[in-house]
Amino acid sequence: MVRRILSAILTVSLCAGTLFAAPQIVFDTKAFQCGNVAEGKVDTLKAVFNIKNTGDKVLVLREVRPGCGCTVVKWDSTVQPGKSAKIEASVNIKGYHAGAITKYVTVTSNAGNDSVARLTIAANVQSAIDISPKYFTFKKTDPDKVNLIVLASAKKDLKVLRVGYEPNKMTLQGTTTQKEGEFKKLNQSLKFTWEKTDSIRADGYRIFKLNFFRPKFDISAYGQIVITTNHPDDTEVRVSANLNL
Length: 245
What we know:
By secondary structure, this protein is mostly beta strands.
């Protein structure tokens, strides 16, 4: 009788083991951080996700689907028990401007523990020069106001070489010659001061201050303040500005 009971228990255990045997997928990370990348200097983000099959059956990756067309993935379709493999992804960020980037990859498999997994690829695109604010209005009623633009850069000796104003010529009155004359006077009348501060952001960017003053003659125009710098990667930054509104 005891032998029969032990035999039955062993049979049930073996059947249960066979029934519940399955591949198990383990990721070294589901969130790959690419860190800070320079705007215009990096076209592609590279991410590698290492996976391991800790189960006792063959792991089959049925689908590895990127969240958008800018992401391309490569992977091994099967992983033997106890073995490892990689999912490699590349993200095209050409033309991306400063800011955070997050892309997703969905992995569908026959894993018993995580059959549908979502992977994340993250990065932060940094411009050579951060600038704030990006829009100004010069008012007739406040001609002596000092306008402040804050710039930040990893270049410790950043300097502003020139500040000009580029109006939309359609907003200027008169003939082409008159418009060119107004444009020249406008740029000659822009005055500014440049200040290097001791403030440094958490990302290592130093803070600089640009103070400039409204032109001293009467003109109405829509356009941009053009700031020329000594930065080799960003010699010119722009701020939208309207005059006499």
